[in-house]
Amino acid sequence: MADKTLPNSIDSTLDLLAKADYIADRSLATVLYLALRMGRPLFVEGEAGVGKTEIAKVLATTLGRRLIRLQCYEGLDVSAAVYEWNYGAQMIAIRLAEAEGEGDRARIEHDVFSERFLIKRPLLQALEPDPAGPPVLLIDEIDRADEAFEAFLLEVLADFQVTVPELGTVKALHPPIVVVTSNRTREVHDALKRRCLYHWVGYPSAERELKILRTKVPEIPKKLSEQVVAFVQALRKEDLFKSPGIAETLDWAGALTELDIIALDPATVSDTLGVLLKYQDDITRLDGTKVKALLDEVKSELRAAE
Amino acid sequence: MAALQGRLAENILYFARALRTAGIPVGPGTVLDALQALSLARVVNRDDFYWTLHAVFVKRHEHTVLFDQAFKIFFRRRGYIERMIASMPPETMSGSPKAPPPGVQRMQEALFYGLDQLEQQKSEVEIDARMTVSDREVLQRKDFAQMTAAEIAAAKEAIARLTLPLDEVRTRRLVADRYGHLIDIRRTLRASMKAGGAVIDLKYLGPRVKQPPVVVLLDISGSMSEYTRLFLHFLHAVTDARKRVTTFLFGTRLTNVTRAIRQRDPDEALAACSANVADWSGGTRIASSLHVFNKQWARRVLSQGAIVLLITDGLERDADDTLAFEIDRLHRSSRRLIWLNPLLRFPAFEARAKGVQTILPHVDELRPIHNLESIAGLVRALSGAPARGYDPKLMLERVA
């Protein structure tokens, strides 16, 4: 990976992603390019398994930056996300100071709350200068954190700074590349979204999905890959509670390849349906006859396209 | 940048205004962002132009459709975008294969300036016409002025006076709590520094409590029409007092009116609601409305331990397995499902209707909601405190 500078056009952003086997469509490349150039966080939303988290990982590898990941959960607080004091070491320092006869309280306090005793958590790490360039900060599944944390993020995302009461404000010299993802299990507040560039990652077109599949599972037979993609695309048109994402397509293709299958048949599909569909209601909805009908439809369409 | 601010800026400004008319919140800061983005992206074709503006203006998935329509109408003329792209000053095109030779831009401006202005006005008028009225469905606006004015005024006042008590659930977030069970090392250490570290005075943490979200599904079909008006007032009061209330109205289809009902003035809020909803006082299709809710909204609004208020009389003619399936799913994905049924005002109410029988086994609580007293009872129920002299479980057994 020779080129580690930021891309300078939409096309080079596409190429950059493709270099790490991420086949993006032009709309994503556009918003990503703008986010990089305008120094804005990128807010990606979409169903599970469409490659949201992957964007940040790919950015980090292709740009040769450090990836700092903050996985959100309910109750995530400052001591887990930003910083924590090393209490054990602080206690020892206090005792030592006492043993040495240090009586100046202000002095002890100053020493104890210095950077030496600070444990840096992801958000603070992301603001630090890095020899490889500003890191990629991935704030994953922000919808899982509660609103209180969201409000806290406003300062970080708008000004790329955090305030540690005992030390002062830490501001990034070079702002990190921030990617925020959400599965939309609740609405994230507009104030946070306003500071970001927003993008909805949808299911890919058949053409792009085929490209992704062949890139990620290169050993898959050509005919099988076409059938897999056509079947998954048909499945997404069904009235399902949770449509399969790209991750499921890849898993399924991997499973079928492991089973040495070269073409889809109703029995195989029914047996491996659990890889694609994760809700019992959806699986019962797709009984044997339904699978057969779908598969016949898909096959005749593929034949017509040849 | 200065030249870019000229005609292109003006066009983007008009476009932003059109988006605002269409219902996408666009602030002046966003317009500046759009201009910066356009100058950075070095747009060369229609698609890039589209996605660049999309990246800046759209902040919600639902707005993509609106943006798409507005974009198509606004930049419909062939060659219009190409001219706009060409009108970007040379410095923004640096590095792109063909920088227009000097003079071309002035020519273009001279040639197209008047033309664009004309087109501009035309497209604006059309956007107004297309965006405000849905031509797919004849809007059947429900006139709210059906009750006597005195009655409404009294009821509204009473509802506004209801104080909504704090309904609390424990969250996983910790706050300082004198009687908490976890030691807060940070505060402990800070406090002990006061004494130079000689005394260690333990400080504690406990779980924070907060109000859980409330999701309301209100039936606005014909059989409920005499109540909906007052319920909306009640919902407005609830929305005003609590942080997270999501309100859906359903008759033949489901409409999310959360934003409309959040307006400060109750009358304005209700007017906004009635403007949003297409099926006032029509038929009821509980099953299909619940299906839409379960599929599109449940995972977005029920995730944080929400209480669901289902306000309906349960009179569904085609109550079959789908209704049972959907209400069961709703029950399983909500923390507490409270059914508010105005028909309970009749003491002899029995679950004879098929729809009522289907819903009944799947709700946690059944409550009447036909007068102010019952609304007050509901308020108590929302607080989690047991209602005096009223056992919702008994009510369930009685009607079953």
Offer a quick outline of the entry.
Chain A is an alpha/beta fold and 306 residues long. In chain A, 52% of the residues lie in helices and 13% in strands. Chain A folds into three domains: 10-82 and 121-201, P-loop containing nucleotide triphosphate hydrolases (Rossmann fold, 3-Layer(aba) Sandwich); 83-115, no CATH class; 206-298.
How is this structure best described in words?
The complex is a heterodimer of chains A (306) and B (400). By secondary structure, chain A is α/β, with parallel strands linked by helices. Chain A has 3 domains: 154 residues, P-loop containing nucleotide triphosphate hydrolases (Rossmann fold), CATH 3.40.50.300; 33 residues, no CATH class; 93 residues. Chain A is built from 15 helices and 9 strands. Chain A has a 5-stranded parallel sheet with strand order 2-5-8-1-9. In chain A, strand 6 and strand 7 form a beta hairpin. The longest helix of chain A is centred in the C-terminal third of the chain and has 18 residues. The two termini of chain A are 38 Å apart. The model of chain A has no long low-confidence stretch (mean pLDDT 90). In chain B, helix 1 packs parallel to helix 6, helix 7 packs parallel to helix 9 and helix 12 runs parallel beside helix 13. In chain B, 50% of the residues lie in helices and 12% in strands. Chain B is built from 16 helices and 9 strands. In chain B, strand 8, helix 14 and strand 9 form a beta-alpha-beta unit. Chain B folds into 3 domains: 126 residues, no CATH class; 40 residues, no CATH class; 186 residues, von Willebrand factor, type A domain (Rossmann fold), CATH 3.40.50. By secondary structure, chain B is α/β, with parallel strands linked by helices. In chain B, the strands form 2 sheets. A 6-stranded mixed sheet of chain B has the order 6-5-4-7-8-9, with helices on both faces. Chain B has a 3-stranded antiparallel sheet with strand order 1-3-2. In chain B, 34% of the residues are buried. Chains A and B meet through helix 2, helix 5, helix 6, helix 9 and strand 9 of A and helix 2, helix 3, strand 1, helix 8 and helix 12 of B.
